[in-house]
Design goal:
By secondary structure, the chain is mostly beta strands. The protein has a single domain, classed as Porin, CATH 2.40.160. The protein is built from one helix and eleven strands, in the order αβββββββββββ. Strands 1-2-3-4-5-6-7-8-9-10-11 form an eleven-stranded mixed beta barrel. A hairpin with a 2-residue loop joins β4 and β5. The protein is globular, with a radius of gyration of 18 Å. About 10% of the residues are buried.
Length: about 230
């Protein structure tokens, strides 16, 4: 996989989103800040603790009515442990607790990640599955694939005091009872490496789902991700 292939994938996603606009589509816009605490452990193990929230600012139908409102949507708290199993690969697993509308749901997560290192950038492939359980809904099983690239804007690697660009494209297959849905995500981010232990990233998180069997739903979340090594 090279940069041309990644750009082609992004173009396909944008075309899919553009075609979905002409259906009776809905959209929502909000902010999605997160805090990540990462720690390197012994024997090639690492740990990530993450807190993320979603806050809605606007929603409506495409070319139709819109509602400007502030509403706190949900909070996700997760803990993921990972182990390096090869020169450029690692496995990971963990747990996520979601708090939404006063209800708590539980998600179990499994990852396998392969990283390809090139002269001027890195390309990461993440294969993931997760299972979500709650009292009000039937269990949901998802199978996911994400490709992402990180490109330094100065030199061949990201050093403290430098900016970088990170772009990811993800396809999420959701199975819940007899229902199936596909969600597509495109996330271009601008990052800044403040120190060896502290960096921030910001940019839009675009998501398209429900377009296979019903009206498409577009979600635009403005992200602010903080990463701290402890």
């Amino acid at each position: 996989m090279n940069t041309k292939a990644l750009l082609f994938i992004i173009l396909v996603v944008l075309m899919q989103g553009k075609s979905a606009v002409f259906a009776q589509a809905t959209y929502r816009f909000g902010i999605m800040p997160s805090l990540n605490l990462n720690s390197a452990l012994k024997n090639n193990w690492s740990l990530n603790a993450k807190a993320e929230s979603r806050q809605l600012l606007k929603s409506g139908t495409v070319n139709g009515d819109a509602v400007n409102e502030y509403r706190y949507v949900l909070t996700d708290l997760s803990l993921i442990a990972a182990k390096k199993v090869g020169l450029n690969s690692r496995i990971a697993g963990g747990y996520l607790m979601r708090i939404e509308d006063g209800e708590i749901s539980h998600r179990f997560i499994q990852h396998f990640i392969i990283v390809q290192k090139f002269a001027a950038f890195r390309l990461a492939h993440r294969f993931m599955s997760d299972q979500t359980f709650s009292e009000s809904e039937k269990p949901e099983i998802r199978v996911r694939y994400r490709i992402s690239s990180e490109l330094p804007l100065n030199g061949e690697s990201v050093d403290p005091g430098e900016f970088y660009v990170k772009v990811s494209n993800e396809y999420i297959n959701s199975f819940q009872a007899k229902d199936y849905d596909l969600e597509i995500r495109l996330v271009p981010l601008l990052g800044y490496d403040i120190t060896d232990n502290f960096k921030i990233e910001t940019g839009p998180d675009y998501r398209l789902n429900s377009f296979l069997s019903s009206s498409p739903r577009h979600s635009y979340w403005m992200t602010l991700n903080i990463f701290i090594e402890i």
